[in-house]
Design a protein that fits this description.
The chain has helices spanning 6-18, 32-46, 64-72, 87-101, 108-122, 131-142, 146-149, 151-157, 163-175, 189-197, 242-251, 261-265, 271-277, 279-284, and strands at 77-78, 81-82, 125-127, 176-178, 187-188, 201-206, 209-216, 225-232, 239-240. It is an alpha+beta fold. A three-stranded antiparallel sheet has the order 6-7-8. The protein has a two-stranded antiparallel sheet with strand order 1-2. Strands 3-4 form a two-stranded antiparallel sheet. A hairpin with a 2-residue loop joins strand 1 (77-78) and strand 2. Helix 1 (6-18) packs antiparallel against helix 2 (32-46) and helix 5 (108-122) crosses helix 6. It is elongated.
Length: 288
């Protein structure tokens, strides 16, 4: 999706052109464009003028080399053997590198957390505990306090070659679950509107509501019809639940044109939905 803030979008495009992806490093491994997308999505979300709480975030990449270094942790190898092969271990080592490397001028901890959540999602995992537990983990890693904050986990791995990564991985296994068929992705209001407008639906926001209208032209023995629907509007970057999106599609008589709801939202990045779900911790994790 496009960013709401056009200046943020321009800077994202500039940096992705300037710093290309690592060749061959594809999902579920993260690459430069993935982390930059996470970073600028955070800046876009928290500066969204259509939301209730707006903050400023110093936007800038401090060191591309440090970010590339963190990304390379996912594929590090010795004597031709890849060090990390388990998905949770891969997520853990990238997360650790991003927290520690301080690649960005602002927002390093929150970008590390959002990237972690996104990569877990790519591997088929979703959070199964309080969002505050993730905040606690980020703070502990950033402050070098894993041994104090998570003492039991640290004791299990303190004599290993990489105790930080093993302890983080152990904790993440307790904090996540594998997705099942009842798990539904979300879509942002902006993405929903763009998809509907591509199908001839007129959409506009007014007085805290999103209004939709689809005009079905007259035909043989059929009069022109106007279909209308209204939903609560919380901001362009805020997510719309699967049921609400289905209700909109049904009211616009478009739902049957898609094989299923999943096919309608396939390809949409979940960054904004993840930010909304973890908004409290992500706001508090703003760099000092």
């Amino acid at each position: 999706m496009a960013f709401v803030n056009t200046d943020i979008e321009k800077e994202y495009n500039r940096l992705t052109d300037l710093y290309p992806n690592v060749p061959g490093q594809t999902h579920p491994l993260l690459n430069m464009s993935d982390v930059l997308r996470a970073y600028f999505s955070l800046a876009d979300y928290f500066s969204d003028p259509t939301s209730e709480a707006v903050e400023t975030m110093l936007v800038g990449l401090r060191s591309a080399d440090l970010l590339y270094s963190a990304l390379s942790r996912q594929t590090v190898s010795f004597d031709g053997k890849t060090k990390y092969t388990n998905p949770i271990d891969i997520c853990s080592t990238l997360f650790f590198g991003m927290v520690k490397n301080h690649s960005f001028s602002d927002g390093n901890k929150r970008t590390a957390l959002l990237s972690l959540l996104y990569q877990l999602n790519l591997y088929g995992y979703y959070p199964s505990c309080s969002v505050n537990n993730y905040e606690k983990l980020v703070v502990a890693v950033a402050a070098n306090k894993l041994p104090d904050t998570f003492r039991d986990a640290w004791k299990k791995f303190k004599k290993t070659d990489d105790p930080e990564i093993q302890a983080i991985s152990f904790l993440l296994r307790k904090m996540t679950k594998r997705k099942d068929h009842s798990y539904h992705l979300k879509i942002t209001a902006k993405d929903l509107v763009q998809s509907l407008e591509n199908n001839g639906v007129q959409c506009y926001a007014e007085n805290g509501k999103l209004h939709f209208q689809r005009i079905i032209p007259s035909g043989f023995f059929k009069k022109e019809r106007r279909l209308n629907y209204t939903m609560v509007f919380g901001g362009w970057t805020r997510s719309v639940g699967a049921q609400t999106a289905r209700d909109v599609l049904t009211s616009m008589e478009l739902y049957d044109q898609f094989p299923d709801y999943q096919s309608f939202i396939d390809g949409q990045e979940p960054y904004y939905s993840l930010i909304q779900d973890f908004e409290g911790p992500l706001r508090r994790l703003k760099d000092e």
